[in-house]
Amino acid sequence: MTVKVKLFGSLVDRLPEDKRKMPIQIELPEGATVGDIAEKLGIGDLGAVILINDQEGHRGKTVKDGDVVSFFPPLAGGASS
């Protein structure tokens, strides 16, 4: 199956320069998870906010053919009250 992957912010820097054009199309076996995608791209050890088809996702979620999986670096900052 084929899924599209979009990396944002500092996560893009983890890829070789010739692979930084988004989205990336990845071939995966049936039953693959978001975690499998992260490992394949070398970002498995990084925290990330994950969306699958613009809905909240997680690394254990199984992906389907045609899904779009987006990885955003963790958010931090803001003002304390």
Structure description:
This protein has 81 residues and is mainly β. The protein has a single domain (2-72), classed as Beta-grasp domain (Ubiquitin-like (UB roll)). The protein has one helix and five strands; from the N terminus they run ββαβββ. The protein has one helix at residues 34-41, and strands at 2-7, 24-27, 49-52, 55-56, 68-72. The protein has a five-stranded mixed sheet, with no helix packed on it. A hairpin with a 2-residue loop joins strand 3 and strand 4 (55-56). The longest helix is centred in the middle third of the chain and has 8 residues, at 34-41. The model has no long low-confidence stretch (mean pLDDT 89).
Mean pLDDT: 89
Annotation field: number of helices = 1
For this structure, the CATH topology is Ubiquitin-like (UB roll)
Our Rg estimate from Cα atoms comes to: 13 Å
Short summary of the structure?
This protein is mostly beta strands and 81 residues long. The chain contains one helix and five strands.
List the helices and strands and how they pair.
Layout: E1 2-7, E2 24-27, H1 34-41, E3 49-52, E4 55-56, E5 68-72
Q: Could you name the key traits of this structure?
A:
mainly beta; single chain; 10% helix; 81 residues; 1 helix; Ubiquitin-like (UB roll); 5 strands
